[in-house]
Amino acid sequence: MVLAYLRAHAIRIGYAAIGVLVFFAFLIATFPYTDTLTNLLAPMGLRLSSRDQGVSFPFGIRMDGVMLDSPADGRALFQSDTMRVTPALLSWLMGSPGVKINADAYGGSFDLHARRHGDATELSFSGSDLHLEKYPGLPAMGVNLSGIVSGDGNVYLSQNDLDADHGMLHVSASDASYRIFAGTPPLKLGDLTAIVKLDNGKLTIEQVEGHGGDLTISGRGVIQLDPNLPDSEVAIKFQLATTPVGHERLGFLLNFLPHPPNGTPYLLHGTLASPGLS
Predict the structure, then answer these.
(1) Which tens digit of pLDDT belongs to each residue from 91-135?
(2) How far apart are CA 64 and CA 186, in angstroms?
(3) Which of 157, 215, 225, 248 has the least C-beta neighbours within 10 A?
């Protein structure tokens, strides 16, 4: 019966299929990529630029030499040699234009789904095999951190209300290390995992664990965010323990700690711009 129906209505079904394809082809061809990206970035005060762009088969655009920065201070926050942008058609049909982004970045890959929600932007993202030493933003802040990072999360960012922002991030790093002073051996952090929650204007570090390096680390705490990020207040409690090899390698560097690594926790306090350790 079904086959008979299909044979009897083959022409109508064919026209309907062609109509659907033409409809989606029209949506894809006329999708406002530039306006959508601009609107998505507006609540975060960011801008996106590229050296070149072209069509990406079967639909979407390819952007080369991509840079995401802050117009306020010109800081580059993200760079990619090649990025592919495709429309999130379902969210667009629902009246909240969105995009899906796939980027090659820092030796790994980064995927992002973004859509506008009122005066805010909703983001869901994942990254894999991102090499920290290839990210220029860390040395610019005086942070000599290396390792291979993967993670995923989601976040809701409003335009003018820091307390309305919320989200969650899961991140892991392997073969991580940190050079405290130039010319000194790097501190091997090994494998790290962290769970971070954003809510009510604060970042809550629900868990951070590290093992397999010179130190084992376990901690949690809060960063109370300020519109001027360096003024954000920090309160993070953590415990350290050195391995025998780590104790030998670090040597005199351990003397800079308030007390030797043992069962007594440390407290990182102050602001991001001027932290203290006790």
Answers:
(1) 555 556 677 888 888 999 989 888 877 777 888 899 999 998 888
(2) 34
(3) 248
